[in-house]
Amino acid sequence: MTTALKNTAKATRLSNARRTALLKALADPRRFELLERIARNNCPLGCAQARSAMPISPATLSHHIKELETAGLIDVRREGKFHFLSLRPGVLDALASKLKLLETASCPAPPALARK
Amino acid sequence: MTTALKNTAKATRLSNARRTALLKALADPRRFELLERIARNNCPLGCAQARSAMPISPATLSHHIKELETAGLIDVRREGKFHFLSLRPGVLDALASKLKLLETASCPAPPALARK
DNA sequence: TCGACATTTCGACAACTATCGAATTGATTA
DNA sequence: TAATCAATTCGATAGTTGTCGAAATGTCGA
């Protein structure tokens, strides 16, 4: 019950600060690419795998991983020397919902609206 | 038919560059707040209205408006000295869809995944 | 035409951020 | 214990970005 409610709350509620943190983490193209790789992998993505897939230095990768983790977008599992990255469930959904809400809240733009 | 297809394509397709531009525009908290005000207004929001609602200088507001417009999130209608801002339909939806796709593409994280 | 007003541009500044090489830390194995 | 390897931290650098005051531009009305 508590867990169920907690998960539901997480899926629908984002504070302004959290929203900002998420959007900032996603705004960097390299980071988004990394997140895509993590999301599309069929199981937790090895850090080493990410490294060989992207032309960036280990230091830069580490930095990006930390940014994604800090924003709460991914989870990092450590097994000895090896790290495995996975998408944290529900976070992107919550953000997407927030954006859709904004779209829904708006009134249709008049057709005469100039786009100069 | 062409228009219908065009709108459909817009709702479902975002290039990487466009996606990045959108996320960068949304990542600033002030800008997001401005977008929220535009979205929630029942008709195009007057620039002057935005100005009086937010504690930022005219220069800063102008800068943010330009960023939102350049990213393609809003349209600006000019009536003499006055500008009116409105949300461009479908853009937030397209972005939200992209995020949801990413969520869907991921595999469920194992419960044993450590969150250190 | 001038003055008032709405908005933008310009230049400066400070803060933030992506990237890297080098050094460090931590885990594993011989 | 030392060597190897995975990943992080550190410091530096260059680029980006938000913010502002002042100046400039554009519109309108007297």
Distance between the termini of chain A: 53 Å
Radius of gyration of chain A: 17 Å
- The run of helices and strands of chain A is HHHEHHEEH
Going by CATH, the homologous superfamily of the domain at 16-91 in chain A would be: Winged helix-like DNA-binding domain superfamily/Winged helix DNA-binding domain
Helix content of chain A: 55-70%
For the biggest sheet of chain A, the summary is: 3 strands, antiparallel
Number of helices of chain A: 6
Shape descriptor of chain A reads elongated
CATH class of the domain at 16-91 in chain A reads Mainly Alpha
Main structural class of chain A: alpha+beta
CATH overall fold name of the domain at 16-91 in chain A? Arc Repressor Mutant, subunit A
Quaternary structure of the protein: homodimer
What is the largest interface, and how many residues per chain?
A-B, 48 and 48 residues
- Gross CATH architecture of the domain at 16-91 in chain A: Orthogonal Bundle
Which stretches of chain A are poorly predicted, pLDDT < 50 over at least 5 residues?
A: 1-11, 109-116
- Give the beta-strand count of chain A: 3
What order do the strands of the largest sheet of chain A run in, or round the barrel if closed? 1-3-2
What number is the mean pLDDT of chain A?
A: 86
Portion of residues in beta strands of chain A equals 5-15%
